[in-house]
Amino acid sequence: MRVQLNQINPKTLSFEDNQRIILSCLNKTNDDTLSIFPELSISGSPLFSRISYNDVFSFSSFVLDSLIKEKRDVIIGSALKIEDKKYNSLVFLSKGEVIGFSNKKRLSIFDEGFSIGNGIETINYKNETIAFGFMEDIEEFLDTKPKITTLILCSNTLFTLNKQKEVLENISIIARKLNANIVFCNRFGAEGGYIFNGASCIVNQKGEICALFDSFKQESEVFQIENIKKINQNALSHYKKILEGLSLSIRDYFDKNNIGKAVVGLSGGVDSALVAALAVRALGKERVIGVLMPSQYSSSHSISDALLSVKNLGIEHYIVPIEEMFFSCSNTYNSILKDNEFSLAEENLQSRLRCVTLMFFANKMKAALLNTTNKSEASVGYGTLYGDTSGAISVLADLYKTDVWLLSKFINEEYRKTANSSIDSLPIPANSIEKAPSAELRYDQKDTDSLPPYDILDKILMNYIDRSKNIEEICKEFDVEGIKVEKTIINRVIELVKINEWKRRQCPMAVKLSNSAFGIDKKFPIS
Amino acid sequence: MRVQLNQINPKTLSFEDNQRIILSCLNKTNDDTLSIFPELSISGSPLFSRISYNDVFSFSSFVLDSLIKEKRDVIIGSALKIEDKKYNSLVFLSKGEVIGFSNKKRLSIFDEGFSIGNGIETINYKNETIAFGFMEDIEEFLDTKPKITTLILCSNTLFTLNKQKEVLENISIIARKLNANIVFCNRFGAEGGYIFNGASCIVNQKGEICALFDSFKQESEVFQIENIKKINQNALSHYKKILEGLSLSIRDYFDKNNIGKAVVGLSGGVDSALVAALAVRALGKERVIGVLMPSQYSSSHSISDALLSVKNLGIEHYIVPIEEMFFSCSNTYNSILKDNEFSLAEENLQSRLRCVTLMFFANKMKAALLNTTNKSEASVGYGTLYGDTSGAISVLADLYKTDVWLLSKFINEEYRKTANSSIDSLPIPANSIEKAPSAELRYDQKDTDSLPPYDILDKILMNYIDRSKNIEEICKEFDVEGIKVEKTIINRVIELVKINEWKRRQCPMAVKLSNSAFGIDKKFPIS
Fold first, then answer.
1. Where does residue A365 rank: exposed (0-12), middle (13-18), buried (19+ CB within 10 A)?
2. Residues A124-158, buried b or exposed e (16+ Cβ, 10 A)?
3. Pair A130, A160: CB distance under 8 Å
4. Nearest to A524 among B49, B359, B471 (CB)
5. How buried is residue B221: exposed, middle or buried, by Cβ count under 10 Å (0-12/13-18/19+)?
6. Which residues of chain A neighbour B527 with C-beta distances below 8 Å?
7. Which of residues 259-318 of A touch B (CB under 8 A)?
């Protein structure tokens, strides 16, 4: 059997764009081939509440009808209305006819609004008994102990850092259980904070990987299933995966929403320097604008480090001192309130005026602001709402500070390998990585004034947020590892996570990298 | 059988507070009585990701053990770990022992992390065969055609405007099917945008309502089930329900989070006047602060109407003109950008400086800002992110503008019935209700410059958002009703809903009143 495996990146509800992508794949092969496309290729996904609207189904049918007219052999994911029921369906087309459906049975959280279907279907195709359906429905199918030669699984599996390994292991097990070849067709691309995992593959009946696509790009290739042989997979390294995933999420956000340019507020710190470097990688230097907003509390290295970022990345930049605006506001307020004491309100005021400034520049340039909050800050609410928590998309919000440093070093290392470079030309200035983190909202402020050192903080947070450990269990972990941390410190960190949920609820969508991304996987009560 | 029906308002994860509330109910009656409490009374709810933490279960068990020691007859909702499985459970205590559990089987979206239990349980109690369990598990229980005298259902049913009617009708049907008395025990109170429905009731085997609590307050009453008789229910009017629900949500948000005061930006418009009036009703006038922030584009009535709000509500207020700050910022920006054209950026700048001002005042006064965005604005993105979309809780975000007007009139009417009042002393100034809505961000701006009139806009939105109709279907609706609206206008409104999802994702949590509250029920794709 000849199959064409198509790993595409549909754009949600852009039916014409998706139709064009699908047709261009079909045009690369011929009538003898069964072309396979991912789940919901025609409408894109996630559809959320749009599943309850009829037009999604009429537009999908319209595109499906046009594909039928191509008289080709195709398995493709589409929203489909059958007798007034709405399904997340895989449609099997052959020679101008629909020869089968597999409607998803085990609905996921993204399928709310779809009806429950019949799961994986078995069909005779070119004198073989094959089956096709959704990854989610595999368990029930295995229970029926089917006898098939090939199983085609389509999916919209999301990316997380360990997902590829999990998926491949799982598919190998299925292949051996069924003694059948498995064709796994997944989408790639990013949509609203979600990255899809790509990594479509073919696994033979021995469980050996015989074809494997990249996670982060479009691929379309024809395979003669009987002839495929085991390949060696080259897994990406941990930080390479993060780098590619984050770059893709920025690129897709801007391109799918037709936003020309990205604005980044450059503080000289590592978070904003990293986001600027990622944005340049994703969009190109012409589409990234750096804005420096020094105040009376900014150290000299804040400006010089930020300017080094600008220079090394080759991006347009502006310097907008906020001191005058700060005094214009605070003098007005304090004359009314008769209160001149420098407090949290004055610290937040600086951060909020920076947001006002960045949004003004973004509005004028029809650009979108990139948020630079990392997961450590988001966890403990170390940031000002309507200040540095702002932006259209939060690039680092699922990456702890210790990972921000390591990813920055990785990017610099990668750069040094490929370019004839000096330390002064690194994408992320060495001093931004090495200096002690500071919000610089009052004189000589350091993050460690209010938080434990990041190696300790992140260890507490990983235990509390990613592993759902409570305080007693975290204390035990530290004891076992021989790390001395007072219980009161752990308790305070957990308390901060708890009381800052209301802030996180108003933060931009985070790019999900883990199974515990805020706003997607992890939600705490507000009161 | 003597039962004590306890409609309480537990505070999420405040185990000691909840224990105190439960004990004070038990102290109101004696050993002969079966005291019934709602779902998750011990931990409060919704627990979201906290369900996956062990401490929730150890704290719950601790409180449960203390209740066992009371040696009373009690049915109470608690998170419960049984042999390493985590359940949303109802525990039946009698004379110092646990005599039964009903663990929820049909898990809702709030139960993610709980294991699937056995559903409604039948038990012999005081020589009667009774059953107890969760409202969600009723269907499966009915299928078993049980023979019981009384069914006790506990719940955390959410409030929406039609919920009470639906619940009572449903319970009547169940009572008649079972030929049994039903005791329905629901919680009341608000938590993070959710309002619970209260309205606990007893319905006899004929399906007649024999006891019915209010939706919005704590009630605890003893009934001899054999003696209860049909009562006449006094349903609250539509706007009275909205008024009570919104007031409760403000009060619970501030009290449960220990926030002393509320700040409201008063523009002279109806939305902010209404929110201020609701805040005074919820918190008392001493806890509400009005801030007026006139600019060069403010009309004279903006200030006079806002001052009338302040006077009639008797609240503290400040006047903070933003003109000077505006020019300090825009002059700085424009000198750098060499661009003096008045654009959207300048409009947004005013709105954002108002947010900066309100947050400064809120920070200084350890207060929280109330957001005043209505559902019409939230739908079409008529508002400035980090400007007038800001606040800790969004009071009106599930109420269309046409309802904002009607609710305001209702409040004024209610006030005129109870007080010896003149038109000048109304809680919501008549002129704020009557004048044409305007954002006043440029000279002589009106909402209708960029939007259709609100009666048309809201009709489109209700069809699109609440009823999930697409454009063709909405056109048909208007045709049938004989209302002339061009298709391009409907299309533009729908397009605005679509492209503003990214803004709504960053808006404060909305108080849910309908089945289509943004951020809770209704979610659109971002790209």
1. middle
2. ebeeeebbbbbbbbbeebeeeeeebbbbbbbbbbb
3. no
4. B49
5. middle
6. 11-12, 191-192, 252-253, 256-257
7. 318
Residues 6+ apart with CB under 8 A from A291: A263, A264, A265, A266, A317, A318, A319, A320, A357, A358, A361
Choose among B317, B395, B324, B390: nearest CA to B351.
B390
- For residue B80, the tally of other CB atoms under 10 A from its CB is 22
- Tokens 């009987």 locate to A226
- Facing A12 at nearest CB: one of B49, B50, B527: B527
pLDDT tens digits, one per residue of A41-97: 999 999 999 999 999 999 999 999 999 999 999 999 999 999 999 999 999 999 999
Helix or strand holding residue A93 (H, E): strand A85-94
pLDDT along chain B (527 residues), means of 10: 97 98 96 96 97 97 97 98 96 97 96 97 96 97 96 97 95 97 98 95 96 96 93 90 98 97 98 98 98 94 96 98 96 92 94 98 97 98 98 98 98 87 88 93 88 96 97 95 94 96 95 95 90
CB B219 within 8 Å of CB B213: yes
CB A31 within 8 A of CB A64: no
* Helices and strands, number each (H, E), in chain B: 16, 19
| Torsions phi, psi for A140 (to 5 deg) | -60, -35
Indicate the length of chain B as a whole number: 527
Supply A411's token pair. Answer: 């990017």
User: Tokens representing B359?
Assistant: 């947050």
CB contact under 8 A, B468 and A53: yes
CATH superfamily assigned to domain B2-235: Carbon-nitrogen hydrolase (3.60.110.10)
∠ Cα B83 A516 A499 (to 5°): 90
> Alpha-carbon distance B39 to B87, whole Å?
12
For residue A355, the chain B residues in CB contact (below 8 A) are: 352, 386
CB contact at 8 A, A397 and B376? no
Task: Identify which of A429, A439, A435, A431 has the alpha carbon closest to the alpha carbon of residue A277.
Answer: A429
Q: Name residue B78's beta-bridge partners.
A: B89
Measured in residues, chain A has a length of 527
Q: How many CB atoms lie within 10 A of CB B341?
A: 9
Cβ pair A89, A77 in contact under 8 A: yes
Closest CB from A192, A352, A507 relative to B506:
A507
Tokens of B184: 């329905």
State how far the Cα of B188 lies from the Cα of B520, in Å rounded to an integer.
19
User: Across the strands, what pairs with A500?
Assistant: none
Q: Can you give the pLDDT at residue B233?
A: 81
Q: Which of B 34-73 lie inside 8 A of A, CB atoms?
A: 44, 46-50, 52-55
**Tokens 């001191």 label which residue?**
A323
Tokens 């108003």 correspond to A506
Q: A330-358, pLDDT tens digit by residue?
A: 999 999 999 888 999 999 999 999 999 99
Question: Which fold does the domain A241-443+500-510 belong to in CATH?
Answer: Rossmann fold (3.40.50)
Q: How far is CA B223 from CA B49, B75, B229, in A?
A: 37, 15, 11
Rg of chain B, C-alpha, whole Å: 26
Q: What is the domain partition of chain A in residue ranges?
A: 2-235, 241-443+500-510
The pTM of the full predicted model, rounded to 2 decimals, is 0.96
- Give the 3-state DSSP-derived string for B175-241, with helices as H, strands as E and coil as C: HHHHCCEEEEEECCCEECCEEECCCCEEECCCCCEEEECCCCCCEEEEEEHHHCCCCCCCCCCHHHH
∠B13-B14-B19 over CA atoms, to 5°? 120
Read off the tokens for B79: 């998170």
Contacts of A441 (CB under 8 A, 6+ apart): A297, A347, A348, A350, A351
